[in-house]
Amino acid sequence: MARWEPGTAERLQRAALELFTTRGFERTTATEIAESVGLTERTFFRHYSDKREVLFHGQDELVRTFLAGVDEAPPDASPIEVVAAALGSASSVFTDERRPHSRTRQAVIDENPALQERERHKLASIATAVTGALRARGVDELAATLAAETGVTVFAIAFTRWIREDEQRSLADIAADVLHELLTLTAAAQDSGRLPR
Amino acid sequence: MARWEPGTAERLQRAALELFTTRGFERTTATEIAESVGLTERTFFRHYSDKREVLFHGQDELVRTFLAGVDEAPPDASPIEVVAAALGSASSVFTDERRPHSRTRQAVIDENPALQERERHKLASIATAVTGALRARGVDELAATLAAETGVTVFAIAFTRWIREDEQRSLADIAADVLHELLTLTAAAQDSGRLPR
DNA sequence: CGCCTCGATGTCAGTCGCTGTCATCCCTAC
DNA sequence: GTAGGGATGACAGCGACTGACATCGAGGCG
């Protein structure tokens, strides 16, 4: 038997989400979160580098899922195809059971600009990771950056739609649709021949 | 004759960039910035809502330039074509004379994660504005979001290339190239027929 | 000319996020 | 049983940011 309850970080995370939901992010202090699970503020900051970070626990796992998807793509796949594979892999993490939790969490984020900022930052770090993975496959820098960044954009848009109350499809399906829509849009521009250069 | 020197916000901005460059962002306090131009910390925060914001003064102008570009696009332009127009318009703001300043400013941002976060947030707000402008033109939500977000991605990538020491072309030229590369990438994926769905 | 309002700044106290440091204490290994 | 180590507590302190109130010169108005 340990001196303290195990899973400290997880308990803090649950307590934080609960408090953020009821009182709002800004009107909840780190001390309140910590004491609501019988710990001190200092301990909170030992587990999370800052107050916002408590809502983004497990982000590493998402990054790894993206990278796993990249690895699974066939060697001759084009950058966008690789990104599509990563999208499929990442989407599979978000099962139907996770939707309610994702929803409440997202509601908190949508209420606070500082949290949105952090969310964008996390998405950007995913893009950076995917860019690196593409580069490791021999894709040149421009193509790698574009494909990765585009993939993350598609993921973010698909995720927003997946969260919606009326949406019943899987995230993977939605992401595939969004990607398809992007290809349609770019193809239309390509064909018009009215772009500069 | 005014009671105080005019252009307080601009003086603060210049002083901040100077101090950030020499001492670094985190090791510069808001009080130091303010006092270096004969003001108090309180006044600093009256002009800038937070310490990071001082580096993003004039962002509104950039947003307006994007939107002006959207307005200039012909009525029958496709979403990507509209975005290309916005890209051209926004790029024209960054003349050759502004490059040295952009470089030192970017160097500061690249050194600090909190500033990168804010930068991403600003880019996201541009995307949101462009999305709104596209929607006002009758573009449906998905296409508008995708086109706007993609456009901002292209802009960001082009901008980092424009900043590079060895790069001599105009930002508009680079942006057009980057957009072209994106169209090439998506076309390749489209043609392969190997995407899910 | 004198008064009054207004806007930008100063002053001050206070909260909160976050950090460094040191002490505490159970659990484990030897 | 003793020595370490890992997680926590206690405490002091800095800096970002805010609210409330005071100050004071500029310009309008009688």
Tell me about this structure:
The structure is a homodimer of 197-residue chains. Chain A is mostly helical and 197 residues long. Chain A has two domains: 8-50, Homeodomain-like (Arc Repressor Mutant, subunit A, Orthogonal Bundle), CATH 1.10.10; 58-190, Tetracycline Repressor, domain 2 (Orthogonal Bundle). Helix content of chain A is 71%, strand content 0%. Chain A contains nine helices and no strands. Chain A has helices spanning 8-23, 30-36, 41-47, 59-72, 79-91, 99-111, 113-136, 141-163, 171-192. The N and C termini of chain A lie far apart (70 Å). The mean pLDDT of chain A is 95. At the A-B interface, α5, α7, α8 and α9 of A face α5, α7, α8 and α9 of B.
List keywords for this structure.
Arc Repressor Mutant, subunit A; Tetracycline Repressor, domain 2; 197 residues; DNA-binding; 71% helix; mainly alpha
